[in-house]
Amino acid sequence: MSKQLSLGKISVSNPKVWVVIGVTVAGIVILTETRRRRLRARKLEREDLGAFVERFELLPFPQPLPPAARHLLSGLTFAVKDIFDVKDCVTGFGNPDWKRTHEAAGKTAVVVTALLKNGATCVGKTVMDEFAFGITGENVHYGTPTNPRMPSHIPGGSSSGSAVAVAAGFVDFALGTDTIGCVRTPASFCGILGCRPSHGVVATIGVLPNSQSLDTVGWFARDPSILHHVGHILLQLNQVEPRRTRCFIIADDLFQLSKVPKQKSIQVITRVTENLSGYQPPRHVNFGQYVAANVPSLIGFREESLTLQDGISTLKALSSVMFLLQRYEFKTNHGEWVKAVKPRLASDVADRVNAAVDATHENVKTLYKVRTEMRAALRSLLKDDGILVVPTVADPPMKLNSKKGLSAEFHDRAFALLSIASMSGCCQVTIPFGKHDGCPISVSFLAFHGADKFLLDTVLDTYSSLQEQVTLVSHSSPVPDTNGHMDAAELLKEKVCSLLAYL
């Protein structure tokens, strides 16, 4: 018998054969491991709905020993938008080229440290729109977080990952930033609470700027008491404040913009004020006309339009000033970096960034004047007890990967509403109001600049009653509006339902 075993023409005693076999086996092992890791990554992505760009754990500072009271946020978890510095991590700003060309942070953002000191645990960084430009929540580099309320629709942005992490229950609360609606929009689309505080009252040290005259640090929560607790920490508020009466001021013309029947929202507000003590009967205002009369510097930005009502064209002018201000400050902050690096950007983001970098600004002083007049106008309207009630956004979230993108009408209606707080610096809280035609809807409460505790106290005071009335109204028949007319769409729907029942 031969001492050598052979397989066909290949001698297994040949060392080269074993090298080939070894390399082949190693290749199979590597391929298997690579596939396993990819599957694991996809599983993790499915598990966190694509909300996170980075997972880690920042433990809270040591807590006081009994019998001392526990810290306000003890036991709570939170996530932060990838715009906040965390020591030894590179702040990504939603773009790989930004991350590649910047060093790890030397310190953690002031607001993140404040939350850790008060007992909360940070569990990671979340996806955002590139450079905090946009309100869709889409990111071509890191993926678009899945909206837990409507998985086939956008989550809203730019703080999309933070909103999704809260809405899905992965964390108790999350930090975002709001420049032109970046907390309020995803809060509305994901059906959760979102707070944009008064401009300048929450520290932005360790937060990358988009436009510092508009930027605020905001936060999301599902529970109004947690929203309230986080506000107390970030705003450094006193625990006790004398109670004062409140008056809701309903912006009737702005509810006309909304796809949601306005009487449902107004009916909820009216019933709550009737059932709670300390609330005056709601007042009504044509807000667009009020702004036109009280912000004279806007007149130079108004466009004559046959399709927009006079007051709404004023708010469109306000939003155009907001965009001009954002572009001017973004160029000042990051224009040189954009020109030097030429980052890879999604097409819609590239349009905004290029518009900012290429813009020439000859009326900058007027932009700031509009902002000053807008703040004074809101202070005069709301005084010490007023809370303006508006729709957060006018339209439901669009579908994911929509080839059309944001329509001009969606854009105009959305930013007419969102520019109010951005340009006045007032505080605003987005409050979920159930669903309409299967889509999450919300209203927003606004209070004058610096009235953050008053606003957060109001939300906490009214939230359970609001949700109870939302449930009741959603199952009730349509009601006439203030002029005795029923919303046409609701009336048609009721007639159809009656006919079907008869048949």
Overview of the molecule:
It is globular, with a radius of gyration of 26 Å. It has helices spanning 15-47, 96-100, 110-117, 160-167, 184-190, 224-235, 252-255, 262-275, 287-294, 310-341, 347-358, 364-382, 408-424, 452-474, 488-502, and strands spanning 6-7, 10-11, 52-58, 77-81, 121-126, 173-178, 193-196, 216-221, 247-251, 283-285, 386-391, 427-436, 439-447. The chain has a single domain, classed as Amidase signature (AS) domain (Amidase signature (AS) enzymes, Alpha-Beta Complex), CATH 3.90.1300. Helix 10 (310-341) packs across helix 11 and helix 10 packs across helix 13 (408-424). With 503 residues, the protein is of the alpha/beta class. The protein contains 15 helices and 13 strands. 43% of the residues lie in helices and 14% in strands. An eleven-stranded mixed β-sheet has the order 3-5-4-6-8-7-12-13-11-9-10, with helices on both faces.
Attribute tags:
membrane; disordered N terminus; Amidase signature (AS) enzymes; transmembrane; Amidase_dom; two-stranded antiparallel sheet; transmembrane helix; 11-stranded mixed β-sheet; alpha/beta; Amidase domain-containing protein; 503 residues; globular
